[in-house]
């Protein structure tokens, strides 16, 4: 398992380092999502689902990337893009036309940081899925993308953690991974602030 030595001489794994490095950015995104009150009513949820669609649509090329699938086996199957599309169809909502807007600029090792953020959101979606029941949505209708993996959220996440921790990366690439995770949180905040939502 790849480990990183911090200034306090403690040894942490790559994923622990990412969690610590993005704690405040992660909290700010969580706070902004909750301010949207996505599960108070269907209109609010549709605004949230639009955000999810744009994010997962832009993330899909990372999940499809051949080089990433070689080092993170099974990555392509982790994408939740299709589930988001199915949710839009359930609610009879057309897929938003986003064209070239809100493109993701992530190269090489930065992409691992972006994947960390996207996969982490799946782990934390159990609370959101439970809240979705308040407006008649669930893992079989309207909130499919919030559902856990059939093998369990925890197991699915631990497999990803192990795969990422075991990657052999140079110091420059470690920094790139961290920067990618920070950029991913900033990207989602930007979506919430700038995406036209109906």
TrEMBL record:
Pfam families in UniProt: Heme_oxygenase
A GO MF term: heme oxygenase (decyclizing) activity
Any one of the GO BP annotations: heme oxidation
Matches recorded under SUPFAM superfamilies: Heme oxygenase-like
Domain of life of the organism encoding this protein: Bacteria
Record-linked InterPro entries: Haem_Oase-like, Haem_Oase-like_multi-hlx
Name this polypeptide is given: Heme oxygenase
Organism: Thalassospira povalilytica
